[in-house]
Amino acid sequence: MHHPNASIETPMSRINVLVAATPSDLEAEGIAAAVAGYADLTLIEGRALALDEVDDCLERIAPGEACALILLGNSAAVEQTGRRLLEGRAQLVVLRVDIVDHLIHIAQYASRDKSLELGSLLAALCDLVSHAGAAPGERMTRFAVHAAPIAPPPARPLLHSAIDWIHTLLRNSASNQPGGNGDIPGYTMTAATITGLLEARPAHGAPPLAAELRQADQALSEALHGADAHAEPLAAAATVFALSGLEFRVLLLALAPELDLRYQRCIGLLLDDLGRRVGSLALFMALLGEPSEVRCQLAQSGKLARWRVLESRIPGLPGADEALHLDPPLLAWLLGASEALDADPCVRRALRLAAWPGASLFEQPLERQFATAKISHLLTEPEPGDPARFILFSGDNAAWSALLEAGAQASGVAAVRVDATHLVGLDPAGLEETGVRLGRLARLTRRPLLFDASAAEASVQADDALRLALAAIGAAGGRSGIICTEPARVVRLLGQAPFILLDQGAIRPSSRLANVRAAAARLGLAADDSALQLLARQYPLEVDGFEHAMRLAAARAKTGETPAAAMERFVNACQHVAAEGVSRMAECIEPAFELNEVILPPDRASQLDEIVDNVRLASKVLEGWKFGAQLPFGRGVTALFHGPSGTGKTMAAVSIARRLNTRILRIDLSRVVSKYIGETEKNIDRIFLDAHRSGAAILIDEAEALLGKRSEVKDAHDRYANIEVAYLLQRMETYEGLAILTTNLRQNLDPAFLRRLRFVIDFPRPDTEAREKIWRRCLPGGSHEISDAAFRHLARKVDMTGGHIRQITLRAAFLAAAADVMIGMPHIIQATSAELGKLGMAAIDLNLPGNRLAA
After folding, report:
1. What pLDDT does residue 386 have?
2. pLDDT band at 192 (very low <50, low <70, confident <90, very high)
3. pLDDT > 70 in the chain, percent
4. In sequence order, what are the beta bridge partners of 15?
5. Is 331 helix (H, G, I), strand (E, B) or coil?
6. Which residues, at least 6 apart from 667, have a Cβ–Cβ distance to it below 8 Å?
7. Treating both helix axes as pointing N-terminal to C-terminal, what angle do 245-255 and 211-226 enclose, rounded to 10 degrees?
8. Would you state the pLDDT for residue 467?
9. Tens of pLDDT along 630-685?
10. How far apart are CA 447 and CA 481, in angstroms?
11. DSSP codes of every residue in 173-184
12. Hey, what long-range contacts does 102-110 have (CB within 8 A, 24 or more apart)?
């Protein structure tokens, strides 16, 4: 290994080096310090960088200068970043560093040592620079760094004093064991010995202690008083549980068999049973004072039972002769296993182990400042008299969780995340046990507990479960936050418990746009603000949804794609995330037509463009120009397309969706309308919610089936049918997206419904000019041998709508394909005749005099 201050042989004078990691850690800082100490290396920025700082630093280095990047981390994001940077800079080399066996294991007092194999690593870096090829794959390699051996444990004076006290107490008790009457300790005891034990009546109060034991007891009390609860788990347990001196000593005696085999053998002797290695409550009461008084004190306090310090089959103190084991997760944590309380099976079933998504998108300084102001109190220990519970209410379910995650990461706090949905269904005893252990985990580890109830169902069973869990968690004290969508429900479940309500929203209304900007920036997209505003409005995803879309788009990245293609990739990812979970009440259609393919008179075609503009510019008009303040309802865009069948109504709706780069949900009325009272309204509501969440447009074909004129109420069926119509009208008014309805029978629609529409567009039967355009569009170039004169002839003679013309051309195409020839007039004539026959119409003679057009 090279000495950190040595010089490395290299063909160039100095190498510019950047060190970056995600997240930045001790290894990155150690490697950066080593780079700065080498004579042949120049450390850019003089420190380890975050991953998102690398691009800016590389831009400040001249393109012709050799540069090396050391990337720490094993994630896919690190790999992707390295490959992306290599594509854009020919003089760059990348050294991927994997840290092996670097986990901090507090039980063994391990630590990540900065004195890693730095010489070998930097030598490998210089070798890579010297022999780098031209291809990106030849300028990137990996290097595994192994952490140093486990460091010695830190001093723990309280534990040492506890061991001294246990040792002295057990040795003193063993030396005072009765004997001399032929007893075999641990196996037999004579009647004389037992009689001698019962001769003297029990003395009330604690017996006098031997001088050595009194000295050890005093030393233990002093060590406990001066112990640091942040550094020593035993001190933290004594402080959090508020244990009396007696209860703390019971805990130590229960801990004794785990510390030394000799203590197990001594306990067997004291129990008069060498097969037993763990003490009982009766033994510990005898060792600590007058047994009956000790038991009364422990029972009256109840702290050992309340905090689940001891294992017990029944609530309260265990039986006198029952083996007194410490609770296994607590025992492991007291001995240094930092993750033991999190791994408690009772706790683990309620925890959310993964970080809440969306935190990475709170990157703007103002958003960070806003987040800090919101959660500063929540992430710290409560002051005396300050309510420990926060109710966090927001219409955006993911906003609080993402904001809390961002704040916790910024402050280095690992919050205890609890998913309330995991608790519903547990029996009352299981709920109470889980709640107690969650509260214990939060208090002992000094971490805020964040209880996410936003997705918990609203039912009597769920309410009972949440009430029990919240009561058990609250009894532990400590700081806890409850994320919900209905604060009134949580207030009711908390009962008389004090709380602080934060209901002004987790983030500002403009934050959705800020989330979109942050996601686009992380993807390297240089989109204009108007496009991002449209995206934020069109796909009203929560912050976690935009993070999922960002990761999905990053996974689909292609080398050398244009900025427009990259933006389209992000938009498509937003579409897919938004469409997840859409119900089967509607058919999700991917738009396949362009708006210019719809053949309409100019005035109608311009109205289709106007619909697109109404959706695209909604933010500017409603929010920027404040027109939204005048529209408590009707902020969405609703349009009715009416006209004969086959005139392009559905095609126009799909084309508008394509222009807006969104999907369209076509309502299947057979699935929506139900014979059961109230079900139709529920189905309608579900469809509109799906459309809102997915950012899709709604298409109701043949709307007259559901929106016909309301009839006079003659029976219950009429009354409920009218209610369904009224509910759909109301839902249309409150919907803020795009809804398009089509009908062949406008006269059958309820006038009250027409009043609520922003656009009503008539789709007339096509005239001769329009029919010629339709014929040409339905016959793709290269598929036919139809002359211009023939197209004009067909437009004049075949007075049919575009839908029928499309069917004719499709049938003609199959006829020509079967004959293995191009489409010609004979095929068109045969297909037209068949279509007319299908409609019950008379045949048309399409042959011109001399049959000049039939060829």
Report:
1. 60
2. low
3. 78
4. 41
5. helix
6. 585, 586, 687, 698, 699, 700, 701
7. 100
8. 93
9. 776 668 899 999 999 999 999 999 999 999 888 888 887 767 877 777 788 888 88
10. 11
11. HHHT----SS-B
12. 102/27, 102/147, 104/338, 105/150, 105/337, 106/336, 106/337, 106/338, 107/332, 107/335, 107/336, 107/337, 107/338, 108/150, 108/153, 108/336, 109/150, 109/151, 109/152, 109/153, 109/154, 109/336, 110/150, 110/151
The token duo for 691 is 């459309």
Q: Which two tokens stand for residue 388?
A: 């420990």
The most confident of the ranges 2-6, 356-360, 595-599, 618-622 is: 595-599
**Encoded tokens for 117:** 């194999």
Q: For residue range 481-515, list pLDDT tens digits in order.
A: 888 888 888 889 888 888 877 765 555 556 778 88
Name the 3-class secondary structure at 207.
Answer: coil
In the Cβ-directed half-sphere of 493, how many Cα atoms lie within 13 Å? Answer: 28
Q: Which two tokens stand for residue 786?
A: 């139809």
Q: Give every CB contact of residue 610 below 8 A, 6+ residues apart in sequence.
A: 759
- The structure tokens listed for 341 are 């309380």
Average the pLDDT over 801-811 and give the result: 94
DSSP state of 258: G
pLDDT digits (tens, 9 = 90+) for 12-70: 457 888 888 765 555 677 778 778 777 677 888 888 888 778 888 888 887 777 788 88
According to DSSP, residue 280 is labeled B
| pLDDT(7) > 50 | no
Answer for the pair 81, 96: CB distance below 8 angstroms, yes or no.
Answer: no
Angle at 278 between CA 273 and CA 282, to 5 degrees: 75
The answer to whether residues 779 and 809 touch, using CB atoms and an 8 Å cutoff, is yes
Place of tokens 């020839």: 821
Average pLDDT, the chain: 80
Beta 500-502 vs 389-393: how paired, if at all?
parallel
Look at residues 821, 754, 824, 815 and name the one whose alpha carbon lies nearest to residue 794.
Answer: 824
Distances (CA, A) of 312 to 222, 245, 292, 303: 31, 22, 20, 14
Q: Largest Cα–Cα distance of the chain, in whole Å?
A: 140
Say how many C-beta atoms besides its own lie within 10 A of residue 20's C-beta.
25
The DSSP bridge pattern shows strands 15-21 and 49-50 to be: parallel
Separation between Cα atoms, residue 5 and residue 36, nearest integer Å: 9
Element (H, E) at 666: strand 664-667
CA-CA-CA-CA dihedral for 817, 820, 821, 824, to nearest 10: -40
Res. 113: pLDDT tops 60: no
Structure tokens at 615: 């959706």
Helix axes 157-175, 211-226, angle to 10 degrees: 160
Q: What is the residue type of 685?
A: D
Three-state secondary structure of 626-647: CHHHHCCCCCCEEEEEECCCCC
Please state the length of the chain.
Answer: 855
The pLDDT score that the predictor gives to residue 586 is: 79
Give the span between the Cα atoms of 613 and 512, in whole angstroms. 21
3-state secondary structure of 669: helix
683 by Cβ neighbours in 10 Å (0-12 / 13-18 / 19+) ranks as buried
Q: What is the helix (H) or strand (E) element at residue 667, kind and residue range?
A: strand 664-667
Q: Are strands 67-72 and 416-419 parallel, antiparallel or unpaired?
A: unpaired
Other C-beta atoms closer than 10 Å to the C-beta of 581 total 9
**CA–CA separation, 442 and 444 (whole Å):** 6
Residue 150 pLDDT more than 50?
Answer: no
Select, from the ranges 145-154, 348-357, 579-588, 618-627, the one with the highest average predicted confidence (pLDDT).
Answer: 348-357
pLDDT the model gives residue 107: 26
